[in-house]
Amino acid sequence: MAYIEKYEHIEDGKITYIDTIFDSSSVLKTSYFNEKNKLYIHYIRGGTFSYLNVDKDLHDGMLESESIGKYLIATIKKDPEKYPFSKEFTLNKGEIDEIKLLIEAKKRFNETNKLED
Question: Using CA atoms, how far apart are residues 68 and 64, in angstroms rounded to an integer?
């Protein structure tokens, strides 16, 4: 799997959105809003884009893929009419570095836990 950790944000007993961090050369993090079928992708260079019409199966496939970049190219990015997108904002260097530090910490934590098993 391409992702390192997934956070399900729950409100009133329902998942409102899912944040996922990745070990990827192109994607830092995604935020998926299931009820809106909307996916936000925070890219490693700082750009944050939203993609519409992303259903749960497509999102789950992304999480199960070996490479998020290859999966996005083969699915969402190849069909911009079906999955319209727009640039939302750009993360600043400090925000990018903070996410990268979180990714590295989670990778170390996961490796340590693998060794203990």
Answer: 9
pLDDT of residue 116: 66
Sign, Cα dihedral of 104, 101, 14, 32:
negative
Q: What are the C-alpha distances in Å from 21 to residues 37, 46, 55?
A: 19, 14, 19
Cβ proximity of 48 and 41 under 8 Å: yes
Q: Which long-range contacts (CB under 8 A, 24 or more apart) does 31-39 make?
A: 32/59, 34/59, 39/76
- How many whole angstroms separate alpha carbon 87 and alpha carbon 94? 19
pTM: 0.91
Helix, strand, coil fractions of the chain, as percent rounded to 5: 35, 35, 25
Residue 33: burial class (beta carbons within 10 Å; 0-12, 13-18, 19+): middle
What residues have CB less than 8 Å from 36, skipping those under 6 apart?
Answer: none
- pLDDT given at position 117: 56
**Is the per-residue pLDDT at 113 higher than 90?**
no
User: Side chain identity at 111, as an amino acid letter?
Assistant: E
